[in-house]
Amino acid sequence: MSTDGKFGDYGGQYVPEALMPAIGELDDAYQRYVLNNEDGFMDEFRERLADFGGRPTPLQRADRLSERYDLDVYLKREDLLHGGAHKLNNALGQVLLAKYMGKERIIAETGAGQHGTATAMAAAHLDMPCTIYMGERDINRQRPNVFRMKLNGSDVKPVTAGRGTLKEAISETMRDWAATVESTHYVIGSVVGPHPFPAMVRDFQAVISEEARRQAQEKIGGLPDSVIACAGGGSNTMGTFANFVDDDGAERSSADDPSGDEPRGRVDLYAVEAGGSSLAVDEEAGVAPNSASLSTGEEGVLHGARTKLLQDSFGQIMESHSISSGLDYAGVGPELAHLVDTDRVTPVAVDDDVALEGFHRLSQTEGIIPALETAHAFGYLEEHHAELSGSVIVNVSGRGDKDLQSAIEETDARDVPNAPDMSMFAEGI
Amino acid sequence: MAENEAIAAAFADGPAFIPYLAVGDPDYEASKAYVEALARGGADIIELGLPFSEPIAEGSTIQNAIVRALEGGMTPSRFFEFVTELDVDVPLVCMTYYNLIYQYGRSRGGAPGPDAFVERAAEVGISGLVVPDLPAEEADPLREACDDHGLDLVFIVAPTTEGERLERMMERVSGYVYVQARLGTTGAKTDVSDQTTRSLQRLSEWDVPKAVGFGISSGDQAARIVANGADGIIVGSALVDIVAEGASSERPVEETAAELEAKARELAEGTREGAARRSPDVDAI
Ligand SMILES: Cc1ncc(COP(=O)(O)O)c(C=O)c1O
User: Fold this and answer.
1) Who has greater pLDDT, A343 or A289?
2) Which residue from B37, B99, B75, B93 is spatially nearest to B268, judged by alpha carbons?
3) Is B81 an annotated catalytic residue?
């Protein structure tokens, strides 16, 4: 894995000049505290993840899904992390890092509100003032999370530009940062943005696969055959993949791999994107009715990094769409884009309908209501289980409490084969 | 590094007044009238914004201008057509974001990369580029294309730019440097920040024209900044405000153009007045 900020041709630091010194300072702090554990930073991070966050999260065998699909399905339960999603791993790491760096204020963007919520919790826990930017449309889709942020003492600022979703919220947070960079740390919510964010967020999230790899030894007796995670920006994805990326089945000489000269096992990695209502794009309207930048995007530069993007032929960024606001983004992490180009990660997409089917499937068969983002991974499993074999780990990136209103409305508006009749609730709960 | 002659000439006899407008705001024809009004008002160089959908360095005034221009159908192809049709005889600098430069070749059926854009810009008579999301560290491919086609590549010096980073940038800059008057995004303000004075002092040993922008809105401010040692004044939001008002009140294009011309004249005069006021020891830095 790279430390120079480039993943193949992807990554880099495409930001306004005013931000460059802050990014340099952050890179320095990343090297010292995160990579070299200076002043025991990583020890404190791990301790807080355990005591405040509730780590480790379980790796649970999903008995009924396993039977249904004739596979060994295991769930990595990030929905049980404090806050209800994997987002706290990153938010706690970055807010703590900001403290070590002597910063006085936290800003963050949020789409689904899960990252905003996690950042607001971490900021309250570590006593840092915090402002969260959130698209107006997302504020309406995710009200419970807005309340949670406010209850934790954060200031929530609505963003009205564009369609009022994650892309606009990121742009607006970067503008705040450009004015306040000397005192403020920007806690970016996924493995996106300029270096060192993609590498640093991956490292904070990598605790997911560090645990999962160890837990797989105990429960499966070895490596899983496949690992599946949904991908918006790709932070739960990279966190779930990070410690399996080297399990690529390739022969290694002992010089390459000091840990031993045995061939590594092979773990297939699937990143499930939001196919929205269609994988086609409407160039004229500048709209892609999906968020499948790994599957359909072209290389370009957005929000500080070169990566795969949904854009028109001139390079204007498209408005993306997904039933889940956490996946509704026109870009994706540069490292994931590179892993896709090098055939290490397989990008797949499931549409809104199939995601809803996944949502109801997990709720009914395992008693776990997933976030709509996470539901995409289960939609993939429902549709494509026949192509998989052996043992599969699916990352349950978050729980679905925040999505109940949307899930009920969307279910009522469509023909979802496995859904209970929700029409009596569709008018509001 | 190639130096564009038209830009060098614009700084040759005294400080330059450099207005900015987003091209296509609020529509193609009106925008042409507005840019030509700036030239009549005394612009020495004009910065033409090519609208990008994610303008992260822009405050709300210019963001809204960009939205109006995009809604009016502005694209990179139309932008180049616009420049060809413009009737002005001052050097033109294109201000845009890197993705539009990078993708232009692909939109013409070729490979992505900056060369096709720069080649086309040179062809229509553009003299330089400013790219707010492209720091010196990532600029080498564009620097090369600009050298090949005789364009200047203007870098932005922020209040936070110093030391080694400043040196690296100064090795790559051509034409002029854009001295960002304050931290933050573009937008009209009324005070002259002492960050500006400090930036001008840090830059004094570099032999390149220093144009100050971000927040300048009056002839009086322009005069004070030039008196403090600036070689140029860049004004965007204060002019875009006039275009915005014209667009929302639906008054005739000529009226808005006349108002822009008057504002440009005030700023151009302020710029020249500042040079006259400059004390000998300021001249020395
Ligand atoms: C539960 C959940 N899963 C996944 C995501 C997508 O983000 P990422 O792709 O960075 O993991 C989000 C984003 O808000 C989320 O809330």
Assistant:
1) A343
2) B37
3) no
Predicted-complex ipTM score? 0.93
Architecture of domain A16-52+87-202: 3-Layer(aba) Sandwich (3.40)
Write down the pTM of the prediction: 0.94
C-alpha closest to that of B141 among A18, A174, A310, A12: A12
- Number of inter-chain CB pairs under 8 A, A vs B: 124
End-to-end, the C-alpha distance of chain B in Å comes to 24
Q: Of all atoms in ligand 1, which is nearest to the CA of residue A111?
A: 14
Identify the band that residue A2 occupies on the pLDDT scale cut at 50, 70 and 90. very low
Residues on chain B touching A171 (C-beta within 8 angstroms):
54-56
Choosing among A6, A175, A180, A317, which should be mutated to test the B contact, i.e. which has the most B CBs within 10 A? A175
Q: Name the CATH superfamily for B5-277.
A: Aldolase class I (3.20.20.70)
Query: Which CATH entry fits the domain spanning A59-83+207-412: 2.40.40.20, 3.30.565.10, 3.40.50.1100, 3.40.50.1000?
Result: 3.40.50.1100
**What is the three-class DSSP state of B194?**
helix
